[in-house]
Amino acid sequence: MIQATKLATEHGESRKSLKLLNLRHLGIGGRRRGDAANTYVDHYETRLLVVTMTTIICCFLDAAFTLNLLSVGATELNVFMATLIEADVRTFVQLKIALTSLSLILLVIHKNFTVGGMFRVLHVLYFFCGCYLALIVYELYLFTLV
After folding, report:
1. pTM recorded for the entire structure
2. First to last CA, the chain
3. Residues 142 and 74 sit within 8 Å (Cβ to Cβ)
4. Cβ(111)–Cβ(125) under 8 Å?
5. What's the pLDDT tens digit per position in 88-107?
6. Who contacts 80 (Cβ-Cβ below 8 Å, separation ≥6)?
7. What gap in Å lies between CA 10 and CA 65, rounded to an integer?
8. Which residues pair with 114 in a beta bridge?
């Protein structure tokens, strides 16, 4: 704080003349320079919203497709989900969507962090979305076999 005042005074500016609103506060002008790894951000890219919403939509589709496939004789391979379906379908759908949403929230919050120093959490989010898309395609294929 003292250094900022000293710097402003050295350049002939006073703290009172500094702008009240920095364009970066509005998300204009980009980020500060520096290390972007392992940092939290408060402004997310549009592509991240698209990937997250695609994953959530795929989660809804997967739940609906699973229930439809089960009604025509398929079996659920996931033991945990099969137990939930047998107990209560509503609980199955709610828990499936809740777990997926919570996972997505945690991944989005930690998007700039690295896993084991090997790859960014953002890539885990892309992988997660890709797996869900592949699952939807597989379930659509299973519908053609029925």
Report:
1. 0.72
2. 69
3. yes
4. yes
5. 999 999 999 999 999 999 99
6. none
7. 67
8. 120
